[in-house]
Design goal:
The structure is a single chain. Helix 4 packs across helix 6. Strands 6-10-11-16-15-14-13-12 form an eight-stranded mixed β-sheet. A five-stranded mixed β-barrel has the order 1-2-3-5-4. The longest helix has 23 residues. The chain is 31% helix and 25% strand. It is built from 13 helices and 16 strands. The chain is of the alpha+beta class. The structure holds 4-amino-1,4-dioxobutan-2-aminium adenosine-5'-monophosphate and magnesium ion.
Length: 465
């Protein structure tokens, strides 16, 4: 018999029709006469209740139907007499696909800690919380593609393996087929990569931006959406070594239009979650973060604050004058620490902030330099609870200024000639940004740790599964 997904079965009127559902048993309880199986197949957070008449199915046959086991159940869909569900299935036929020994199956109890669940990341998608998170993750990916498609952007695939360090932070994972047990070095102690797979030193990309810029200089509006890698030793609830980034790049726009795009795009994604992930959000709102739905609803209604870095520093210094204590200093020129960002967003303004025009020395080489020659047109979006969710900028389109900056920073240009060609041939004003997908996921789900919004997190000293 053809399987009906539980999400569909729950929408049917229970008129006694025969249906078949398949899934994993969440629980089984009952008495001498009747047994109730709560079955989940991942299509929805909701379980379907299967009622077993023990006169027809002796307890003995039901023995392998324990929490975690996988079954196929056929029966009549009827209106439920109990509260909590509209319909239920009266079992007529049962097949057990796979048992789960109660002595060994780790997901017996409720309320297991997030830390423990991380150690069983291969099974945690079967919990309510992670089922919800991963369904929302899928929906957010769809929202992103939908947004850009609707707005005339082309999905452009940038490479994962690259020879350039976009952010210039030296946090790249190397890619090599060299025999590390027998590494030859020259007289200066340098490694010769000419006989390596690509004939040069290569790494996993930290960002698709540089190639994205090339594409924007031909297709006008593009976006990338793929995995990026950073070998930064940051053991925080907001950093991953492997994360997904969405990077649009647009020709012919200026700073204001870039900030409009950042704001409009995030709001679209949040609205999408509220419209498409209702059941999962209600679950998370109840069990993970009581303020979640209210926060999501408020973000789509408020205008983000637009603030220059210099204005931000003034507010922070004023706060310090009035007795506010921070762990890290914040004088003009310093990179803001997350405590500073959170003060501005959560305490001072109480809403998202787009901060712009940062000192050039704390930002990457490609950002457009302002007239003052001190600041660049970076536009970061700072979010409550999260801190930086987007990093973006107008790009420096002048070949001379870009070259001067590259020289000042001593960036090796041998492998970047192609990037400079966009400034040599038909240079155009352009801008773009990168949204950390898992940071967006943190905001949309209310989860506290970035390790819990990606199926298999990669962090320092952890690459299990
Ligand atoms: O600010 P970042 O470093 O900017 C770039 O990489 C630019 N090339 C993007 C662009 O303009 N096309 O990173 C962008 C975003 C951050 O705002 C943050 O949300 C996320 O990527 N991010 C991380 N997310 C998880 N773990 C990490 N280690 C992250 N590093 C950055
Ligand atoms: Mg950044």
């Amino acid at each position: 018999m053809k399987r009906t997904e539980i999400i569909k079965a729950l929408q049917l009127a229970g008129e006694g029709q025969l249906i078949n559902v398949r899934g994993w048993v969440r629980s089984r309880r009952g008495n001498k006469n009747v047994s109730f199986i709560a079955l989940n197949d991942g299509s929805t957070i909701k379980n379907i209740q299967i009622v077993v008449d023990l006169a027809q199915f002796p307890e003995e046959h039901l023995k392998p139907v324990t929490t975690g086991s996988c079954i196929s159940a056929t029966g009549h869909l009827v209106a439920s007499q109990g509260s909590g569900q509209a319909v239920e299935i009266q079992l007529t036929e049962l097949e057990v696909y796979g048992t789960a020994d109660p002595e060994q199956y780790p997901l017996q109890k409720k309320g297991l800690s997030m830390e423990y669940l991380r150690t069983i990341a291969h099974l945690r998608p079967r919990t309510n919380t992670f089922g919800a998170v991963f369904r929302i993750r899928h929906n957010m990916a769809m929202a992103i593609h939908q947004y850009f498609h609707e707005h005339g952007f082309f999905y452009f695939h940038t490479p994962i393996i690259t020879a350039s360090d976009c952010e210039g932070a030296g946090q790249m994972f190397q890619v090599t087929t060299k025999n590390l047990y027998n590494l030859k070095k020259d007289e200066e102690g340098k490694i010769d990569y000419s006989d390596d797979f690509f004939g040069k030193q290569t790494s996993l990309t930290v960002s698709g931006q540089l190639e994205g810029e090339l594409a924007a200089m031909a297709l006008g509006k593009i976006y990338t959406f793929g995995p990026t890698f950073r070998a930064e030793n940051s053991n925080t609830p907001r950093h991953l070594a492997e994360f997904w980034m969405i990077e649009p790049e647009v020709a012919f726009i200026q700073k204001d239009e870039l900030m409009d795009l950042e704001e409009d795009f995030i709001k679209y994604c949040v609205r999408w979650a509220l419209e498409h992930c209702k059941d999962d959000l209600e679950f998370l709102n109840q069990f993970v973060d009581k303020g979640l739905i209210a926060r999501l609803e408020s973000v789509i209604k408020t205008d983000f604050v637009r603030l220059t870095y210099t204005e931000g520093i003034n507010i922070l210094q004023e706060a310090i004058k009035n007795g506010k204590k921070f762990e890290f200093p914040c004088t003009w020129g310093d990179d803001l620490a997350s405590e500073h960002e959170r003060y501005l967003v959560e305490e001072h303004f109480g809403k998202p902030v787009i901060m712009s025009d940062y000192p050039k020395d704390i930002k990457a080489f490609y950002m457009k330099i302002n007239e003052d020659d001190k600041t660049v047109q970076g536009t970061d979006v700072l979010f409550p609870q999260i801190g930086e969710i987007i990093g973006g900028s107008v790009r420096e389109e002048s070949l001379d200024k870009l070259n001067a900056e590259i020289e000042r920073r001593d960036i090796p240009m041998k492998d970047m000639w192609w990037y400079l060609d966009t400034r040599r041939f038909g240079a155009a004003p352009h801008a773009g940004f990168g949204l950390g997908f898992e940071r967006l996921m943190l905001f949309v789900t209310g989860m506290q740790n970035i390790r819990d919004v990606i199926p298999f997190p990669r962090t320092p000293k952890t690459a299990e599964f």
